[in-house]
Amino acid sequence: MSSGAESTGATTGGTPDDHGTLYVVGIGPGLPDHMTKRAKEVIESADVVIASSLYQEFLRADGTIPSEKQTDEDGVATRDDGFEQEIVRSTMGRQIELARAAFDYVREGKDVAHVSGGDPSVYGKSDLIFKMAEEEDATDIPIEIVPGLTAALGGSANVGAPLCNDFCTVSLSDKWRGWDEIEEKLRAAAISDFVIVLYNCWRNYEQAVEIVREERTDDAYVAIVNDAGREDAGRNGESQFITTLGEAADHDDKVSGMGTSLIIGNHETETWSNDDRTYLVTPRGGRDVDDF
Amino acid sequence: MSSGAESTGATTGGTPDDHGTLYVVGIGPGLPDHMTKRAKEVIESADVVIASSLYQEFLRADGTIPSEKQTDEDGVATRDDGFEQEIVRSTMGRQIELARAAFDYVREGKDVAHVSGGDPSVYGKSDLIFKMAEEEDATDIPIEIVPGLTAALGGSANVGAPLCNDFCTVSLSDKWRGWDEIEEKLRAAAISDFVIVLYNCWRNYEQAVEIVREERTDDAYVAIVNDAGREDAGRNGESQFITTLGEAADHDDKVSGMGTSLIIGNHETETWSNDDRTYLVTPRGGRDVDDF
């Protein structure tokens, strides 16, 4: 790779013609309202759709996949135009098995849509698919990532415009890495004034807030965003709450689960209220109106 | 704000009933394929659409706004169902004037869609709108941000899955801030092993690469992504190129303009090739397949 590679160029003989494609599809943070047109089209035309119960529910909400009553007990759904899709329920413990099954479907000539919430790469399923493809020597499987709106963007829009300057995302899950690595990233981001979006913060969020607090002032703004884009269909209902770094740890009742993100503003982040509500805004680089 | 505020709660009397809404709408990195359903619906139903020539072209590509021949010389477009929309061309030097005009339209009862590429907050138009609303005491204007797919996500999908661990975005534009601030962020992100996505990198990208290079090894992977999601409709055409930190500065012919992003992998980022192409992938936290 040292001399560079056009990643669109063929490396060997190309995929066999009788293969389908494995699409890893992001459906955005919530209901299909926040799904891209491309994601919707890929799911609608896939021969096999692999998705969790919650995402299946979201996808049925606007007809992206057929209703329960159009689906038989083997999971075969018949669309209004007669096209049949196999709808496979994915669950946490079966990720490897499902990736292997996806490769088999593709080899049978089927297009597979493997559904992720948000963006498939941002703490989603993409890295597993590539790891599995490597492990299984599955170089014959064409893989395409269909991007989606990640929770940072959906959550940001719900509170206003807190991401208008450089931002970073940090996952607080320490399942596959030590807390020291997470702490190092948080501290670096806090010191150098990134806006910080915390993912997987249903656990450890108080520790994360404490670390950032050591590097920033207590009056820095924090937004706690739940189930962005999901209205009442999420596990806890869509909501947003604006507080400060000094008080964020006191609001653990607002940090409810996997659908929660925390957005920690930088030293320029401010609130602005109109007659309806209060917004959180990070002006870019301290410029004022005359700079535009 | 110290005791926290539900940002959905009314603060004073609420917006006058005769007002429209100012929507700041992200249309994603490229053609309408990567626009969300919500963004499309908001633009289709707005009385006034403010967008640059390039974005107007993208929006006409799938009929989100009416064709040139359905639009008269005053910019009034008539949709197939007879609904009339005023299409306003936005240009760089007129941002303040256009924001003020948008407030006036909303006060006349019109819904306005102010169109941004990508996500409106990530180096987009949101912060200007809020700054202008503050400057003009426009507390009567309801503002809603409609999020969009930012270039980091679109570009990442085009090369594979480089953002599968903590990442940050850094704008290299030093128009409103000193280079020292940009350098501090780059260095912090490089040392603490974030995947780094560079925006506005048509200038200064070699300096940015040089800084990251001081903190990382020369064989770290870099993707240069152009016009993600735009196919041939962008200024330079959609393309992606994988190189290394040590050689990235030699490829200035690939860094073509405003539609270019650089994705700098972390120490775990690797390439993987199948029979079609080479992908860039960042496995999360060093886990292997058995961890899933």
UniProtKB/TrEMBL annotation, chains A, B:
Low complexity biased stretches: 1-15
One MF term in the entry's GO annotations: methyltransferase activity
Keyword Methyltransferase attributed: yes
The Tetrapyrrole methylase domain, residue ranges: 21-232
Domain of life: Archaea
Pathway this chain belongs to: Cofactor biosynthesis; adenosylcobalamin biosynthesis
Gene Ontology BP term (one): cobalamin biosynthetic process
Record carries keyword S-adenosyl-L-methionine: yes
Keywords linked to the UniProt accession: Cobalamin biosynthesis, Methyltransferase, S-adenosyl-L-methionine, Transferase
Positions of the UniProt region annotated as Disordered: 1-21
InterPro entries assigned: 4pyrrol_Mease, 4pyrrol_Methylase_sf, 4pyrrole_Mease_sub1, 4pyrrole_Mease_sub2, Cbl_synth_CobJ/CibH_dom, Precorrin_MeTrfase
CDD domains in the record: Precorrin_3B_C17_MT (cd11646)
Pfam families reported for this sequence: TP_methylase (PF00590)
Protein's UniProt name: Cobalt-precorrin-2 C(20)-methyltransferase
